[in-house]
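sorry for the late reply, my laptop died twice this morning and i had to redo everyting from scratch. anyway the thing you sent over, i finally got around to it. pasting the sequence first so we're on the same page, its 157 residues, then the predicted structure underneath. double check i copied it right bc i was rushing
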Amino acid sequence: MKLFVYGTLRKGGDFSQYLPEGRKITLCQLEGVLMYNLGYYPGCRITGKKEDVVVGEVNDFEGLLSQEEWENLIGIMDRIEGVANGLFDRSTTETPYGEAIIYTISDKTLKRVTDDKDFELQVLTDWAEVNMDVADMVPTLNKEKDNVTFRAKEQKE
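ok and here's the structure:
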């Protein structure tokens, strides 16, 4: 019951509140994975190349969640990651702490991004290095276009 996260699901990230408290979080480097900056969130691809390294967190839910709760959590993660819409794929990878689920950018999404002549694909090692403030943005899934867009949160007076 492990989940490797590398972007907005990392502790303190915009979507980390969807992960249950009390989990064991271990920061680690994962070899054989390449990370791209997709704008408001990153996307990874498993390459198997030792020189491709990503910094992320292994979240261990062993002893914290029942099998049913784990399956419910993965269902929530699938929705956040847009698995049904082909935005990301769910797979497993080996980490220094055992096998973990990882969400990787789908072929469809990578093609759409690389075909966009106005978008420069940037390779990253650590999402925490990206200096962008998206805390005041709200993600919105656009099912017709199979993507996530962001809009500013309404300000409260």
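Helices lie at 67-80, 107-115.
thats about all i looked at so far, will dig more tmrw
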